[in-house]
Amino acid sequence: MSALRIPSRVGIALAAATALVLAVGTAAATAAVTAAGVFGSSAPPVSTAGFPAGGHDPGIFTDTCSRSLTAPNDPIMMPGMSGMSMQHDFFGNPAVVASSTASTLRGGPTTCSTSADASAYWTPVVYQRGTALVPSRTLLYWRDPAAIAAATHAMPEGISLIAGDESATAPQSTSVVDWTCTTTRRDPHPTRDSLPHDCAGGSQLRLVITFPNCWDGRTMDGRDRSGAVYATATGCPSSYPVQIPQIVLHVTYPTSSAAGITLSTGPDTHGPPVTGHADFVDGWQQPRMAADVAACVDAQVRCGPVRGADATPQGGRQR
Asked: Is the dihedral of CA 63, 66, 68, 73 positive or negative?
């Protein structure tokens, strides 16, 4: 496959709007037209020559971000209220504070494998018998679920999203919050569950959080979660007509035991592990995000990890 010429995100969004006028009516079309203004104007080409296509995750690239800090801040749910949220492990931009926004993050430092991604990602702190566990590895998938045929647009510039429920009182669906273990040769497909469980020797406990991937075309602030929903087997609903990359956050912890696992619930408290959730504030350089989404996710190519200032795909699949 030769280098791809990536079309304008604005052009793609406007084309989608025209299609939506015919398919689902004025309301959805208006959302797509609104979306046209937040995808960026152009994207450099990305070469995916020799990269595999199809498979379980037909369109995907990955981004690895180490923990950047731990702090009782939440820029989405408690903006500007420094020290007042539950403790969170942050990944990506180490300069994140309670008042951070997408615009203050973009272009900043990052612990991610590509400097094009200065986003902030965060999860509640995981404790074992009262001691905080420092995540040993954090992997992000940017993917197109295999069952959905609709075009995938770049993540809207400046969006924030939340996945999971910090107020849950019962285990959540494994399609959103999934406790599992790292893969090994002896156990390449470890058990998935809604609660932590013991891992086989040589593997570690892993928390997997899956974000919504259908956007309404208007809402940028993820605080009330009204702007994005999960696709169904038939795709995105007409009221959320813009399919965006689905972020799947994999956080690995240095333990093989589920005994005594709790999650942070406040600045100095923690409780049962049913409240798994993750937050994202977009700090990507939009042209790089658009290029990788178009060449990998929308083109149904398994690009593997992206690295460097240009977020260059490295090939293969990373687990």
From this structure: positive
